[in-house]
Amino acid sequence: VQLQASGGGLVQAGGSLRLSCAASGFTFSRYWMGWFRQAPGKEREFVATIAGLGRSTIKYSDSVKGRFTISRDNAKNTVSLQMNRLQPEDTAVYYCAADRNLIVGLATTSTEYHYWGQGTQVTVSS
């Protein structure tokens, strides 16, 4: 299993970035795909997740709801995170994660995900 996150960078507050995660080595369409982030000195926190198997379940953290949009392209084995109206508090390393067997109520919990990408840095300047 490989997850390769990309698209991070430096952006001014109010700007946008689009992160992508390319997946390989597993049946992508069947897996939950999540985004998490970790700021310096803080624990990894949930950002967004999208269910597999054609289910419509999508979850966002309260801090990004209305600003970030998660989407997936099963034909290309990619999951994306469109981040708008970025704020300095969004600065973190962003990780994509995957797992096949998640209970909906635990889909926001990082320890429930078995597979992780290497992370991509997002820095938002004020």
Short account of what is shown:
This protein is mainly β.
Q: How would you sum up this structure, described in words?
A:
The chain is an all-beta fold. It has no helices and eleven strands. The chain has strands at 2-6, 9-12, 17-24, 32-38, 45-50, 58-60, 68-73, 78-83, 92-99, 115-116, 120-125. Strands 2, 4, 5, 6, 9, 10 and 11 form a seven-stranded mixed β-sheet that branches. A four-stranded antiparallel β-sheet has the order 1-3-8-7, with no helix packed on it. The relative contact order is 0.32. The model has no long low-confidence stretch (mean pLDDT 96).
Number of strands: 11
Q: Give helix and strand order, one letter per element, not per position.
A: EEEEEEEEEEE
For the sheet with most strands, the description reads: 7 strands, mixed
Estimate what percentage of residues fall within beta strands: over 45%
Q: State the low-pLDDT regions, or none.
A: none
User: So what's the overall shape?
Assistant: globular
Q: Based on helices, strands and strand pairing, what is the structural class?
A: mainly beta
- Distance N to C terminus: 37 Å
Total DSSP helices: 0
